[in-house]
Amino acid sequence: MIKFVPFVNPKTLVPLKKNDCYFQDIQTKEIFPIKKKIPRFCDEENYSTSFGYQWNTFREIQLDSISNTDLSYQRFYATTDWDPVKLEKQNVLEVGSGAGRFTEVFLNSTNGLLHSIDLSNAVEANLKNNKLNSRRLRIAQASIYEIPFANNIFDKIFCLGVLQHTPCFSKSVISLINKTKIGGEIVVDFYPINGWYTKLHSKYILRPITRRLPSKFLLKLIRINIGWMILLFDLLCLLKLNKLTRFIPIADLSNSPSELNYKQRRERAIMDTFDAFSPAFDNPQRIKDVAKMFTSNGCEVSFA
Does the global pTM surpass 0.90? Predict the structure, then answer.
C-alpha cells in the first residue's frame, strides 16, 4: 500500500520530526513552520508573490467543478497520457500547483495520494479548493530548487505551466530529475520559442514595466481596460488580422474554450492577462533545448 513520502530538510535531506506547529530537523534542529495547516519550507516573500496574489484572487476560476467544464481534466490527461487507475499505486509529485486545478483533477479521478508544492502562498487556495480530498493530499510551500522530499523517490512528477517562470530553467529541470526514481516519469510543459518573432509581443515589450507594478494596481489597470481590448482582439480576428493581436496588451483569446459564457471569458481574459504581465520571470524555450536538458542528465525523452 502506498503511503505518503515523508518530508525532509530540503537543504540537507535529513528527516524531520513533526510537532503541532512546525517540522524540525532531527540533526540541526532547524525549524520549518506550519501555517494554516501547511508546512512552509521557503521564505513566504519571494519571486512568486504575484502568483500567490493571482491564485488567491482567482481561486476557483480554473476548477472544472466550478466552471462545469472538463478543461483541466482534458489538459491533464492529454498532456500526461497517464492511466488514472495506475496512479493510485504510485508516488506522485506535483510541482507548482497554483490554486490546484490539476490537484483537483488528480484527486477526483484517482484514488491515489498526491504530494504537491508551490513556491507561492497559492498553496492556501489549493488547500481550500481541495479540502474535501485533503486526506489524500500532502501539500507544502516550497521551492522547485529545494523540494522537501528525498531524492530518487517519486514514480511520477508533473510540472505544468511552471518552468518558464523559474529563474533558471535548466536548474529547475535537474531538480525534478533528482526527485524521480530510475524508471520514473516526468511530464512538463512550457512556453515555446517558435521563431525570432516570439518575443516581438506586447507581453515581452511591456513586462520590464508591468512586472514591477504592485499586483493590486496592475490588476486594476487590466480590469479597467479589458473591455476595449477584448473588442479589438475579436475585431482583428474577424478581419483575419490575427497576427496584429500580439501587439494588444492582452492574453491570447484565440484558444478560449467555446463552453465559456461572456462573463467567464472576460474573467479568464483578466486573469490570463495578469498572468502574462506580472511574473518576475518569463523564459520561453526551444523544445529541442529542453529535450537536451533531460537527455544530458540521463533521461530518455519519449515525446517532445
Answer: yes
